[in-house]
Each structure stands twice: as structure tokens, then as C-alpha cells.
Amino acid sequence: MTHETTHENDIPDQECRMTTPTVSATGLSLSYGGTRALDDVALRLSAGVTGLLGPNGAGKTTLLRVLATAVPADRGAFTVLGHDPADAAGRQSVRRALGYLPQTPGFHPDFTAFEFVDYVAILKERTDRGARHREVRRVLDQVGLADARGKRIKKLSGGMRQRVALAAALVGDPGFVVLDEPTVGLDPEQRMRFRELIAQAGEGRTVLLSTHQTEDVAMLCHRVLVMAGGRVRFDGTPADLTDRAAGRVWSSAERDPGARAGWRTGTGTFRNLGDPPPGADLLPPTLEDGYLLTLDEADTAVTA
Amino acid sequence: MTWHVDDDDLRAYGRGELASPALWSADTHLTACAPCRERLAGFTDPAAVDLGWARLDAELDAPRRGPVESLLVRLGVPDHVARLLTATPVLRRSWLGAVVCVLLTTVLATDTVRAGAEPTLFLALAPLLPLVGVALSFGPALDPAHEMAVVAPMHGFRLLMIRTVAVLATAIGLDLLATLALPSFGLIALAWLLPALALTATALALTSRLGPVLAPVLTGGGWLTLLVVAQVKAGAAGTLAPFSAAGQGVAAAVTALACGLLFLARDRFDRLQTFSV
């Protein structure tokens, strides 16, 4: 199952029948400053973690901000849990169902972890003090910060700050969680811990995870979207994306000039992607191979 | 143990209705008497106990309020609004200290120079302080959690108004205190008030179109340009037009108009105004 572009008709009927989409979008387009950031994007998201891969400038953050109702699209429409954010009332309903961790979450540095999440809980209309504090404690416990809730944010490590931001996103048990590159800047151990938290967050709710890390997608996601040039270039399972590179990865002693991409590996041989020559020494593909070939084909399509 | 709390007192204690001094006696006795504690458990509604524990949890978890937050709560501001205001950068001590220093310097300079019948320097500067304060209280530049706030269910305009009212009240309060230090000029020393409201409302109305940086810069620049032009027209001794009766009327009209435009543009504060791919 592969999809060059994503349109509603491309979504397999079986999947549509089996799951009710949390998010349903058609024709989302957004331009600014002469750049087409989103170009006719359509998608359906249902429960579980969906990965969003793409190079810088692909339109990932713009798509997440549109779906999070931070910026309006020029054209197109979408719903979140049946709510249409086109008007103020619908937008508020969407926001009540939303958890959002932006690309660069900002913190009031003098706040403690508890105070910051408490602040976000107030923005999420939790005005009753006792109930709000119980909710804050619950989400801080959930992200493993029970013992650090009284610490000032400026004294926390990068990984702990990301967990504070995730806790803030989870206040109110939202049905749709948007995470914009939450593992950037984390060391491997922190990244692994954060993946566990994202996997937990994806149980029973819909999570859209933007990332540059194909390992994040391979370990967490039941589905993956690849964006380039403001368009969705692939929509399927991580296994489908890996399969795109089946029979198209080979090794050679020197870089193959016919390869679309190639690099020297730690063993000294070259790993080549593209259309292999006859008799090539084929290698098992990885998710990253499928991703790179998808981007390469998208680039070729744009150039042509 | 020579005595035990009787049933009626225990029931009243469980309901939280036992009056002192019987309450004190019961408190002391229950600390030491396990049988009475067991009897009390039988008289107490489990739901009320759960509620009590929940209240205790909330208090144990409650962060210690800072001086500004405590003052706001003491003044009757709801707890959650006070917390929102503590995240307003210009309500921090460093900003307030800077404003006080600027005002003290201006008042001293105005009192020392005494170039005419009006405290012109003070009247020119005082309206800018609320403008700058409000401009710095909202937007991505100085609110690090701005993006999270924008996508929260609380409407961005409501958050803006909460912060604006608090900052305006603080800045105008400080301006008024400074005015009291210039008693010899009479009521003319209050001629900054309407221009202050006009500038602040205009900047906010323009923010919906021009963004949180350009709008206050243009508004403040326009005010200073207006004063220079008025100074040239009035000559050395005359009253500057913005501080005359007619000028005050114009400031009131501009305030009303800008407030109307701001209300019409309120939904624009519910979205991010700058973004990248």
C-alpha cells in the first residue's frame, strides 16, 4: 500500500470503516510571503500515534499549527472530534479537545513545574483550585515529574522541560494531541524515556507527532505521513514506507554514480539508494531508506 | 482515659459544626483516644471525608504565592486570575522598579527646569508608560508561552484584557502618584491621563493589524511627533495642543473610537500573528 499523494479517496475503505477519524481534513492550503506552506493537504487521523516526517520547510509545523487552530488555512476545512473550527464556538470546542506541544515551548522561567502546568490548566478553563491542582498533580505524575514539581523550570534539564511541556499538553485528558518535534535536542536516554511517554499518551487518543527522527516513527507510530513542499507525499504504515525501498538499496565498494543517494558506511562500503544495476548486492531496506527515496521522488516530481 | 467525647459532640465534630471550647477539647482528646476516633469514623460521611482529603491535597500541592500574587488575592482578585497575572512580565518587580525610576527622574527634571506653566516633560512621558507596559504584556516577544496560550480554550482577547486592565491600573496608579509630587502645577498635571488611554487603546487596535511590535512603536512615535509639531506651533510659552481642553476632547474621542475598533477586531487576538514553516 503506497500513496504518492493523499486525497480522501486514497484512504483505504477498510481503514475508514474500522476507525472513526478524530481529525478529518480536506484541501488545506496556506500561503504567505510568496511561499506555499500547505498545498491541498487532506488527511484522516484516528486513535494511536501518527508520525509526520519531512525536511525543514516541508510544511510540518504549519500543518500542526493549522490543526491546532493557531493559524487559519487560506482554503480547505477540517474537523477535530466532529468540531469545525471555522467559527469561534467551533474553535473553542476544538481547543477543549486539544493538547499542543509547540516546536519551541516557552516557559516562564521563574515558575516551578507545578506553577507552569497550573498556569496552562487555567488557560484550559480549570478555574476550581482544588480540582485544578489534582489535575496538575496527575499529569506531572504521568510524565514522571512527581518529585520535581516544586523545582523552578530554569533549573530543569532539557528533557525535564520537555516533560513539563508534555504534561501541560495532557491537562484535561485531550482527545487530540499535537507534538511538534518533541525529541529534538534530547540525548538518546532522554529520547527513549520521552518515547515511552508518547506511547502512553497515544493509548486511547489520537497523537500527531512531527519529527525528524525516523527511529521515533519506527518505534512509536502505527501510521506515517511524509511531507515535502507543502504536500503529503506518502500516507501509510511504517512498514509500507520501508517497503518503498525494497530492492532499491545496495552496497558497493565505490559510490554508484547511478544511485539517487549514497553514503559511505562504517564498514567502508557504500550504501546506495535508487535503481540498482544488474547483479547488485541488495541490502534489506530501512524506514529511513523509504523516507529518503520518497523525498527524492517528490523532489524529482517538483523539478519535472 | 477518664472521659470520652459524647455521641452528639462527635456527630457535630464530624459535620464541622462543633463550637469552641468543646471543639478544642474534642481535638485534644481525639489525638490521644483511639476508641473515640473509631466512633467518629462511624459518624462521618465518607464523601465528606474524601472531600476533606481532596481539599488537604490541594492545599499541600498549592505553590507558595509570590508577593504580587498574594497582594492580588488579598485585593479580591480570583485565585486563577491572579496566577494568570503573575505570568505578565511587566508586573514583575524589575519592570515596576524601572518605571518608578523613570518617573522620579522625570518629576525631578520637570520640577527643576520649570520652563513654563505646564509640566510638559512629565505630560509627554507619562502617557508612554502605560502604552509601553501594555505593549510588553502580550505577544510572542515577551510571553514565552504565547503559542500555548493562543491554542488554549480561553479566548486570547480575554487574556489580553485581563493583562491590559492590570497593567493599565498599575501604570496609571504610578503616574498618579508622580502627579501628586507636582502640586504646584495644579490640575494641568493630570492632562496626561486621557492621552495615555488614547495611546494605549490605539496601539491595541493597531496591534490586530500591524502586530505587537510595530503598532506600539508607531503609536509612540506618532505621539512624540505630535508633541514636536505642537511645540513648534505653540512657541515658547503657550500650552501644547494635546494638553488643552480641545486636545483632551480629541484624546477622549480617539479612546472611544479605538476601543470600538479593538472590540471589532477581538478575534484576531485568538490566532498566532507570526509563524514559520
TrEMBL record, chain B:
<dbReference type="InterPro" id="IPR041916">
    <property type="entry name" value="Anti_sigma_zinc_sf"/>
</dbReference>
<feature type="transmembrane region" description="Helical">
    <location>
        <begin position="244"/>
        <end position="265"/>
    </location>
</feature>
<keyword id="KW-0472">Membrane</keyword>
<feature type="transmembrane region" description="Helical">
    <location>
        <begin position="121"/>
        <end position="139"/>
    </location>
</feature>
<keyword id="KW-0812">Transmembrane</keyword>
<feature type="transmembrane region" description="Helical">
    <location>
        <begin position="90"/>
        <end position="109"/>
    </location>
</feature>
<keyword id="KW-1133">Transmembrane helix</keyword>
<keyword id="KW-0805">Transcription regulation</keyword>
<protein>
    <submittedName>
        <fullName>Zf-HC2 domain-containing protein</fullName>
    </submittedName>
</protein>
<feature type="transmembrane region" description="Helical">
    <location>
        <begin position="187"/>
        <end position="206"/>
    </location>
</feature>
<feature type="transmembrane region" description="Helical">
    <location>
        <begin position="213"/>
        <end position="232"/>
    </location>
</feature>
<feature type="transmembrane region" description="Helical">
    <location>
        <begin position="160"/>
        <end position="181"/>
    </location>
</feature>
<keyword id="KW-0804">Transcription</keyword>
